UniProtKB/TrEMBL annotation:
Catalyzes the first step in hexosamine metabolism, converting fructose-6P into glucosamine-6P using glutamine as a nitrogen source. It comes from Iodidimonas muriae. Keywords: Aminotransferase, Cytoplasm, Glutamine amidotransferase, Repeat, Transferase. Its EC number is 2.6.1.16. It comes from the Bacteria. It is found in: Cytoplasm. This is Glutamine--fructose-6-phosphate aminotransferase [isomerizing]. The active site is at K359. It is an enzyme of class 2 (transferase).
Amino acid sequence: DKGNHRHFMLKEIYEQPTVVGQTLSSYIDPLNLRIVLQDLCFDPKTISRVTLIACGTSYYAAMVAKYWIEHYAHIPVDVDIASEFRYRAPVLSQGGLAVFISQSGETADTLAALRHCKQAGQTVAAIVNVPESTMAREADMVFPIHAGPEIGVASTKAFTCQLSVLAALAIGFGVLRKTIDRSLEATLVQALSEVPSRMAEVLHHDEKLRDIAADLANARDVLYLGRGTDYPIALEGALKLKEISYIHAEGYAAGELKHGPIALIDQAVPIVVIAPMGPLFEKTVSNMEEAIARGGKVILMSCKDGLKNHSDMAMASIELPQVHPMATPLLYALPVQLLAYHTAVHKGTDVDQPRNLAKSVTVE
Ligand code: M6R
């Protein structure tokens, strides 16, 4: 049932404040500002390496988690696309934890990689939405994301719920490994617990994003730029746009712009810049200025302080709430989802059932 929404995708975008709240409630204790993890079948203190494996949007969640786990838990992390991992000769560390991220829990390549890691003696964890899925059954340990059924082929709420679980795991591992003290744990848990209400604020920009999308619908190519944990959000924004509007889009790490893609830039290529306030803000802005100097038309997503001196140079801007850096990928996922959604609606494509795509890819 789509409720009063025109598409499942829109309904699922709008569900995010609620479902992310539900997900977080099983991983955090908001009163005492602590992470609560179920009994783990491994000891985060002795894990030698974490290998995160997934496909598509779930892979982008893994990319975000790499930054978090390295930063907060000081564990080396590898991220891999399942279809690449399984046909390589990956060298797995003894005492390694392999984590498989999948909405469906059935994606063939991810499942094959899971079986490979299990056979190779890794501790295997699955972060899934479907609790009775094959991956959930075969893993040593399951972390459910509690997003509820996701019908739209383009993943939205599963992504932000995956990020919520991964954030809790990164903090939880850090606490157990003592790389995070009690006060940092409290700060981070507080930041996460505010995400649902901040997401609800972000959804108020729906109409503005619809207006921007009317322009975007005329583009042939669109670039998305971000740094740090917002680089995977740039990739995710580009994937969403490709999947449902069929407009060619690329996500880049903003610092890579001058190593090639800057050659593409002219007035006809809109550039979505994801630039929350934080340690990387100035760096991202200087990449944006390089693009503007070449005639690039920028759609800038930042917070009030970020937009203060920079919104004039952008073609359009979206003001998001100012939050802790750990919360930015969760929040900035929403405007890129909405931008793709409205662009597709504008073009009249089949949003919930895009051509050539299946919800669950059970062939290799
Ligand atoms: O069910 P999974 O999370 O394993 O699916 C992985 C990808 O097939 C999936 O994320 C796909 O990229 C979506 N269409 C993205 O919107």
